[in-house]
Amino acid sequence: MKYNLEVIAFDIQSVIAAGNSGANRIELCDNPGEGGTTASYGMIKTAREKTSLQLYPIIRPRGGDFLYSDEAFEIMRRDILLCKELQCDGVVIGLLQADGSVDKNRTARLVEAAYPLGVTFHRAFDRVANPFEALEDVIDCGCERILTSGLKPTAPEGADTIAELVRQSNDRISIMPGSGVRADNIFNLAKQTQAFEFHSSARISIPSAMEYINTGMNELLESTGLNVDEVKKMVQELEKLNEAL
């Protein structure tokens, strides 16, 4: 196994930038303020045309919790079929029951719908009641990896739990630390958790290029982009680990 890095892209410029950063995979999202929701058809199609990196759109029809109605589930299923049609490499999903357990039945149905695409179970995992039971449930559903911060706000804070999950997984699924992962902590996080995949937003606020701004609207009109320099630094840290393998 080699160490690799996944980054988030919230716009098409970030998709393109990721291709020049050394990252291995893109999680494609819309709405950073909601924690990421499913991008539009046009965004997914254009992203697929603009990058040769692995492309994993998030399948999340709304912000908020991860308890979904039958109608929301059908939206998710149809969005997955669309990602297959657009030749994405995988999708990112996460569904829970009201009691904080993994919604195994519907997660498995989405994994089946996605096949042969890969499936990541996202940070809905950080809202489960029992992470070690949830790990086994996600494995049973056929997902290939879990994105987690160890049930804490950031991965460095949850590193001990992440390490326990890596040990329990025993190479049956990849445990991918995410949230708060940066160049100044990724090396130590890899050592502490024994994980091989890492996820980072490496986000940066981009000011508007508008020459005219209506100050009466009291808006910044900033957008969220990818900090390529930060990504390159993280890649360099992981390359040091790869060289030691």
Describe this structure in words.
The chain has helices at residues 12-19, 41-50, 70-85, 104-114, 131-141, 159-169, 186-193, 228-243; strands spanning 4-9, 25-28, 54-57, 90-93, 118-121, 145-148, 174-177, 197-200, 203-206, 223-226. With 245 residues, it is an alpha/beta fold. It has one domain (4-243): TIM Barrel, CATH 3.20.20.380. The chain has a four-stranded parallel sheet. Strands 4-5-6-7 form a four-stranded parallel sheet, covered by helices on one side. A two-stranded antiparallel sheet has the order 9-10. Helix 4 (104-114) links the parallel strand 4 (90-93) and strand 5 (118-121). Helix 3 (70-85) packs parallel to helix 4 (104-114) and helix 4 (104-114) packs parallel to helix 5. The chain is globular, with a radius of gyration of 18 Å. The termini are close together.
Radius of gyration, taken over Cα atoms and rounded to an integer in Å: 18 Å
Shape: globular
Low-confidence residue ranges: none
Proper CATH architecture: Alpha-Beta Barrel
Give the name of the CATH superfamily: Copper homeostasis (CutC) domain
Oligomeric nature of the chains: single chain
pLDDT average, as an integer?
97
The CATH topology, please? TIM Barrel
Strand order of the largest sheet: 3-2-1-8
Question: What's the tally of helices?
Answer: 8
Q: Major sheet, described briefly?
A: 4 strands, parallel
Helix content: 25-40%
CATH class: Alpha Beta
The helix-strand sequence is EHEHEHEHEHEHEHEEEH
Layout of helices and strands:
Elements lengths: L3 E6 L2 H8 L5 E4 L12 H10 L3 E4 L12 H16 L4 E4 L10 H11 L3 E4 L9 H11 L3 E4 L10 H11 L4 E4 L8 H8 L3 E4 L2 E4 L16 E4 L1 H16 L2
Parallel strand pairs: 1-2, 1-8, 2-3, 4-5, 5-6, 6-7
Antiparallel strand pairs: 9-10
Helix pairs in contact: 3-4, 4-5
